[in-house]
Design brief:
The protein is mainly alpha-helical and 145 residues long. It is built from 7 helices and 2 strands, in the order ααββααααα. Strand 1 and strand 2 form a beta hairpin. It is elongated.
């Protein structure tokens, strides 16, 4: 394929929000929103409710770093688990104070959701099914399927 580019300006570099910021890269709220997919209004709401730490202010511009990206991911995970923003604020405050180990806390939920019995699946034929059910009434197989 031949591309003629004579007299044409070079392609524009990707916007800063397209690059993955590292922990030291500072982003504006718009760049943070573009990077995480969280609307700026929601970011401000999380800050107002205490779930997201405040950004660094330089002059009149607020700058966010990788820790903010990670916190937004954590907030999303906790919301997916059914926590409301006030509960999330309490969880992240406990983490920040060193009073709560998130991995341990999340592991507790996994334990609660784990099977409580060691029952194993068993394959039976029709006669075995009737033996387990204790009767041979018409329509039993259809009811069980």
């Amino acid at each position: 394929m031949l591309l003629l580019t004579a007299g044409m300006p070079p392609p524009a570099p990707p916007p800063p929000s397209a690059a993955k910021p590292d922990d030291d890269a500072a982003m504006t709220i718009d760049e943070l929103a573009a990077h995480t997919g969280v609307p700026t209004r929601t970011i401000r709401f999380y800050q107002a409710r205490g779930a997201l730490m405040r950004p660094e202010i330089r002059g009149r511009v607020a700058y966010y770093v990788g820790a903010h990206v990670e916190r937004l991911r954590l907030i999303a995970q906790l919301q997916d688990r059914g926590l409301r923003i006030d509960a999330i604020r309490d969880v992240v405050a406990g983490i920040d104070r060193g009073e709560l180990d998130l991995a341990e806390w999340l592991g507790l939920e996994r334990e609660v959701q784990a099977p409580w019995a060691d029952d194993q699946a068993k394959t039976v034929d029709e006669d075995g099914l009737y033996a387990l059910a204790g009767s041979r009434r018409p329509g039993l197989v259809a009811d069980l399927l």
